[in-house]
Amino acid sequence: MTLSVTIIGAGLGGLTAARVLQRHGIPAAVYELDTSDQARSQGGQLDLHEENGQLALAIAGLSDEFRSIVHLGGAAARVFDRHGVLLAEMPDDGTMTNPEALRGDIRRILLESLDPGTVRWGKKLTSASALGDGRHELVFADGSVVVSEMLIGADGVWSKVRPLVSDSVPSYSGLSYIDTYLDDVDVRHAGIAKVVGGGALYALEPGRGFLAHREPGNRIHNYVVLDESPEWFGSIDFGDAVATKARLVIEFDDWADDLKGLISDADTDPILRMIYELPDDHHWTHSSGVTLIGDAAHATVPGSDGANNAMLDGAELAQAIAAHRDDSDTALAEFEQVMFARSATAAAVGHQDVDLIFGSGAPHALADLFRGV
């Protein structure tokens, strides 16, 4: 019998798994709740690292395609204080150690590499239950039912597959990011564009700040970062973009005008992204016929190589399945042990990075790092 694999979630991890499985001749079907690949924005830029994200794309045979989408110069970075004073600057060294590329472009090259019909769009998973012998019944919102031989949960922080293997529930990390975009920046937002430069901007103080990045297409993507409670964010009506911008600007009232302009002059409505995480050492006892990758397995704070590790999860899991075609449980169990160790280390590093950027030493701790102090 030819093994087939069912993947829930068409994010970077799930698509990488499907691509590598298909390269090994193993059928894979991906079920995704979005109605198409254009249904929503895929977010901003990612720096893909040699040891995980780029390695995953090499395993997937997509290194050349990745090089074609790299944002040259995008790895430069600047650190400012709240008054707009430049504290440190790090140029893009021009290497391929951790180049920047748009998440949507990375997803596109993965989608284009898959067999036609691999992704089943508009499939929102509502429940998953074990049938025995490693098989699972998957029920979707449209009433359709699928029975999996091997199931991979790549369905993010609020995974519907996770309860099959773990009782852990994500908790609020204490940080939230609010997305804004500015378009045609060199013409319409020249002052802000000059401050941001060609790469990333960090404007910080303890517990809050701006993380902005120049993107291809003369665009700046900004995250307003705030260390506030869910109740605090609940007091803001994010459905009213004008009022939301005005409320956020108040939080940065005595900051430099060009920094506040990242909010007040935004060309898009602010979008709240509250950061939830699983325990740093999240793991489970292996369960037959099912496993998790990416945020479904190890959601944590930004700075922990989340997308990079999700892609490596997908690539290495697919390799393990291919190496143990006749013993899928050995494949999954061996992969899980490697992933558990890697994700625990990454989560610890992520928390250290958050403390470096937004902790009591902000903004000088990051500036000192950039200066090599």
TrEMBL record:
<feature type="domain" description="FAD-binding">
    <location>
        <begin position="4"/>
        <end position="325"/>
    </location>
</feature>
<dbReference type="Pfam" id="PF01494">
    <property type="entry name" value="FAD_binding_3"/>
</dbReference>
<keyword id="KW-0503">Monooxygenase</keyword>
<keyword id="KW-0274">FAD</keyword>
<keyword id="KW-0560">Oxidoreductase</keyword>
<protein>
    <submittedName>
        <fullName>FAD-dependent oxidoreductase</fullName>
    </submittedName>
</protein>
<dbReference type="InterPro" id="IPR002938">
    <property type="entry name" value="FAD-bd"/>
</dbReference>
<keyword id="KW-0285">Flavoprotein</keyword>
<dbReference type="InterPro" id="IPR036188">
    <property type="entry name" value="FAD/NAD-bd_sf"/>
</dbReference>
